[in-house]
Every structure is written in structure tokens, then in C-alpha cells.
Prior knowledge:
Elements (H helix, E strand, L loop, with lengths): L6 E7 L4 H15 L4 E7 L9 H15 L3 E7 L8 H14 L1 E7 L6 H16 L16 E5 L12 E4 L4 H9 L2 H4 L10 H15 L5 E5 L14
Parallel strand pairs: 1-2, 1-4, 2-3, 4-5
Antiparallel strand pairs: 5-7, 6-7
Amino acid sequence: MQMPSQLDYLVIAAHPDDAEIGVGGAILGLKAKGASVGILDLTDGEPTPHGSLEIRAKETAAATALLGVDWRGNLGLTNRSLTADLGSRHKLAGNLRQVRPRVLITHYWEDAHPDHVAASALVDAARFWAKLTKTDLPGAPHFPEKIVYFFSMHLRLHVPPSFVVDVTAQHEQKLKALACYHSQFIAGRPTTPPTIFDDLRDRARYWGWTIGVGFGEPFLCREEVGLRSLLDLL
């Protein structure tokens, strides 16, 4: 996909499949409303027990097509060794200045997976660096308005979210996108319930229940979240 000159939303994920797990329904909902949405995977996600670079690339392409995003890129950092170091920050900040997203969506800062924790810290730092002047970064200074955090699934945390998005209409398509990652969610995994898809459905149903809808995705924001009016409340 050709790199866009501007995006409304950019999901930044440690590995291919993280965006689908954490925010797949919201991505589909944003696209249905006409927003421009991109995904930037920080690593290729490999090696994994049943995957390879070629397999993961094909799975990612299939999932991307189902999500219908405007752009998906890969920053080329190293899986299992992701760190929020200066080199990675420089690379990500340069990308932000080129695709110029209004809102960033990334991992919540607490998780068992070190790559997820590093990704969260890296996005925080790169957001600030992207606005710097007198630098060798490509493009013009840019400061995304908000960072919104999604929850990963390695720690069974129950952190009160800032808000929950109704993804009832998008939930089945989200599961189809996740099923594209056969090497990650199907190969070598138990086929008797509860499967990983049962877990994902149950979690989404719980968050939907909290706001009185079928399925939901929770998000957290460090900064205050504003509403244009109380009509936006469910």
C-alpha cells in the first residue's frame, strides 16, 4: 500500500494480529463511518511455533483486506527484542511525520508481553519527538492530538476503561479477520471449547454488557475524553 499523506487514525501494534485482537471492531466501525485508518506493525511477529515470515505476511494481507484499512505498514523492528530506544523512536517519529495521523491507538502500558510494554512506551515518546523542529527527521513537525490505548490479552487485568466502543455490528467481521491468522490462532491449538475465539467473544460480550449492547471493545486514555454533546452517550 502507498503511504498516505494524512490519516485520521493510526493503530500502532507490536505484531501483526495485535491490532485485530485489540481494536479490530473499532477499526471496522471507523471505516464504516468514512474515517481514514491505518495500521503500523512495529515488527513482523516472527518466529512463532507454527508461523514463518512468508505465512505471516500472507495472513496479514488477508486480514488487512477484510478490515479495509487505507494503509498498513511495518516499521521493521525486531520481534522479541522490541525496545523503546532512541533508534526506534527516531524511526517511528519519522513515520508519524509522514502519515500525519490525528489520533494514535496503541497498547496499554501494562502487559506480560515485553514487546507490548515497549510498544506503548515507544509510541508515547515518538509522539513527542514527531513535533520537534531543528531535527533530521523526515517531513514537517506533527503532533497527534490523542493517544488511545487498547488492552492486550496476556494479563487478565480488569482496568476500568475510559470508554467502551459498541462493536456489535462489526464483531463477526473482526473474528473473520482474526481467523486469517491460522498460524497464530488455529494451528496447534485445542479445538474443544473454550478456544481462543470463545475467549475473545466472551470478553467482547462482557464489555458490550457493561454498556448495554451486544459486543464492545474497551479503551483507556491518559488525557480527558470529550463529548460534543450528551447525545453521544449510549
